[in-house]
Amino acid sequence: MAYQQKLAEKLTILNERGNGVLIRVNYIKKICSDPKLRPSLLTDKIMDPAVKYINKKFPNVDFRGNNQHLTSIQRQKAEVMSAASSYYDSFLDVMEFRDHVYELLNTLDACQCFLDISINFDLTKIYLDLIVTYTSVIIMLSRLDDKKALVGMYNCAYEMTNGTCDSSYPRLSQMLIEYEQPWKKLHEDFGPHTRLVTSAVLSLQMVYPRRNLPADQWRRAQLLSLLSAPANMLDPARSASSACAPLIVCVLPVWPAAVSFLLCPSSVNSHPPSLELWKAALRSGLYLTLTRDEALNIHKVSEEVFDSHKGYGKRIADIKECREHAIQNNGALHRERRGFLRGALKELFNVLEDEPGLLGPKALYVFMALAFTRDEVLWLVRHSENIPKTKTPEDYVDNKMAELLFYMVKLKALVVKHSYVIQRYHVQYLAQFDALVLNDTIQNMYVCPEEESILTSSFVSTLSALSIKQGDSPPQTNTYSINAIRAVVDPLSQAYCSVNKAPLPLKEYPDLAKVMNTIQFHTRLVDNMEDLLLETSELSVLCFYPRVFEKMFQQSSEEPSVKRYIMAFPYICSDFICCAHPLCPEEVSLLPKNSAKTISTARNKKLKKPVPKKGEVEMEKPGAESVRKDRAVVTNMDKMHLTLTELCSSYDLCSDFIVSDHIINPAEFLLSHLETRLSEIIVKMANNSPPSQEITRPSDLLAAVRSYSASLHTISGYINLDVSRLVKSILLQQTQPLDSQGSKTITSLYTNWWVYLESLLRHASGSLIAHSPTMQCFINQPSDSDLSFRADEFSDISELQSLAQLIGPYGLKYLSENLMWHITSQVSLSPFLTLCSLSLSLPLVGGENVLKRMTIIGVILSFKAMAQDCLNDVIPFYILCIYQYGAFLNGLLPNAFVLQVTLNVFELASAAGFSCDIDPALVSAIASMHKTSVDEEYKLTCLLLVYIAVSLPSLALDPNSLYNKANGGHNNNIHCLAVAVNQLAASMFTIQGKDIEQQLEEFLLLASSTLLQLGQTVERVESKNRDSVYLLLHMIVEQSPFLSQDTLEGCFPYVLLRNAYRSVYKSCIVTLG
């Protein structure tokens, strides 16, 4: 009995086993042909004599006696056995697979099975699959050049170890020799099976032509169109053989060519239908896929095989004619079909997306569309790798492949999303239509055996009892298990009814067979939809064609109209995991690991631009991109905007997808790259050049950042991205010295420019740049050495406000810390000079040096105060609550509060931009540098103030000490001494716990006394800038929160200050109107 032979089970198992063996042989071929992966046994120079000797003497390799060629194997026999065992076992698997195939083929012939693709579809399909798989295994084995060396080395090592050869070696070596010419041996092996093979292949003559029509006939028939007949839109899609509709088309050319022609050529000469089917297969393409990226040149092989047989001379002429026909017509034929499918899939998707309920009756259309598209994609991939010599090579290039893949992916996603619609529809269809049709078909049978009658009646009852309530709730998670129903119509039952003398022969009841095939397809739509989608749309083979895949991606990315579909390429990578096979897990090592890098590299390849001729084109002026007389004229900006829009639209393909156990979210991937690029662009826009000490003005950079951010916000109109969060995150990183990538930020660049490079402050200490209290900025002084920048363009209120907006409180704090470092370096030297002078009991020397350092400190503190004021101006627009809180605490803080609490409040207020009586940053910096006792530090501080006070008269000797009425300060910046004395004294005495007011009053008395001595100077030369120096006392008191005008008047006559102001302003010319 057929069911006792278990023919269908054996066919199914052998097919799966054969696929694994085929992949394993292909893997061995790949690693043996790759110099980097080639086994060490074949690359070691010590083994070269053994390899050559074994290849020459195989299979009779004699290692006895003093054979010098095999000495290397003798010395390392254990290592050789271990290294070659996996390859030897793989070849044994091939031999075992061959034995089982021949045994099963003999059994099928003995049972006189009947095979017809339109009647017992599943059984015929797996039978032909097995023939194709077995043929591919043998061809791949013949292409493996190192098979003799690997098998021979293992057997030599085995025999040296065990004293006898491996028991399987004689048969295995004989098989390898027999299949050195595979087609000759295959022709001999399949000679007894010609009848069954031919009958199975000839059943394709009705299916194959329908699946290979040109695009014009598809278009006239309105294939896959749901809108061609609106009145019939709700009618279920049916065909004469529904199960053949999702059949994988790319396998069809292999069957008649490899099976009928190459294995059983006699049928081509003796049977006209076979000849026509064979010619149709030869005209359909030039290459057939064996496995992965291994292809077979069908015309070349056919010509060689037929040439070796007598009586087939006419067939060689047919082969040449078919090859010429394929070269001339196939490229254009498939180009037109891809063009038709692009429109058909787009229409189908749009209709089904709008009305997903149509997926129920029109599910067959979806799977047909996927199968057609998959066939066209694989045909192009297969032939793009081996483009023939033709006058139209552009037929093998498709720069719109992204659109075809895009709608293929969208259709798959639509089926997965609304799978419950298809399930529920076909559960009801099986119960309310298929069951009735099957019952009528059974009733019309003129004879039905009792056992089969009981079985079919039970089957009809089971179908009729199906209900959508059997699925789980909610509907989106409906799962139906109807394995028991499928068991009646699967290949097992087909095998039972397809053998000779079957109680119910299917060939006598074709209507029953077609109904059973239809039911089989409908049951798969209920509980096996994932496998059906895999069969009709899986494109994992693309991972073995990286060059073609890269080329397609590059061509599509250069076509503006398909940029919106470009995301289909990375999404297709999620299919790559489907190509893995449990019999060859090592193959994963051959798969591309850096496909993202490969695609990125392909996209970033730059075309060489032609060198412009001299005087050819004049540079366009700013704004030229917006000038046009006709809206129809497309400008560069229009093209760039369209390109950006199309690329953004491509991200709507899916929210995420899985590639090799990694979940890829395109939007988040884009967001991470935008974050990196935006950081780099902002830093690049700063245009910092350390050699020339140039940098972009903060206001210009702020305007550029705002413009760039506004452009980025337009992306959110196309992609679901939180651009505001992205920009805020980037700008927050720019307030730190380093960003998340460890790169320099604009905070670091501007701090280096202001402080480390001292482009501004160093020139200020040399009187090349002056601080202007009136204009609240630094200005250039007239000098012989011209500066490379204008100080007021980087330090006025608008620039510092822009800087505060760019780097924020964090950035200004970092800037302040660097300023404090410079101040502490100046402070550490000033007390040292004072101490040295006093210890030597000599007159004070180096007073100019001390005052110069104090002036530098004052300039730094003046710049810091300006930056703090600008921060105070802009911070209410960003963090109003902290601004108000800081203002409240700073205004209500009592004088007698705890010192540490006071400093903490001042630090909060300073972060909000408020000026404080005591600078917390300066206090912290000075406190960190003190290493002696408090009393000792107090003495040094007092001595420093004394040194400053008694040195003030020397400033009158400097011609640059003249007070500038327009700037409101002195030309040599000595007016900054007021800030330096007040802030430095307040900070030092705060650390030492002394009364700041009392110490400053003592300083004021001493400074007044020394300055009054200038009035007793007889020589006019020494006191020419006396009036300008007198103003310093007024500035110190005016800028101090601890001194008052009453204190000043008590130690310095006010009349002198009044006369000093009159003297410095007497030459000022006032113009009105």
TrEMBL record:
Superkingdom of this protein's organism: Eukaryota
Single Gene Ontology BP annotation: neuron projection morphogenesis
Gene from which this protein is expressed: nckap1l
Origin species: Gadus morhua
Pfam families cross-referenced by the UniProt entry: Nckap1
InterPro entries linked to this entry: Nck-associated_protein-1
Annotated protein name in UniProt: NCK associated protein 1 like
GO annotation, cellular component aspect: SCAR complex
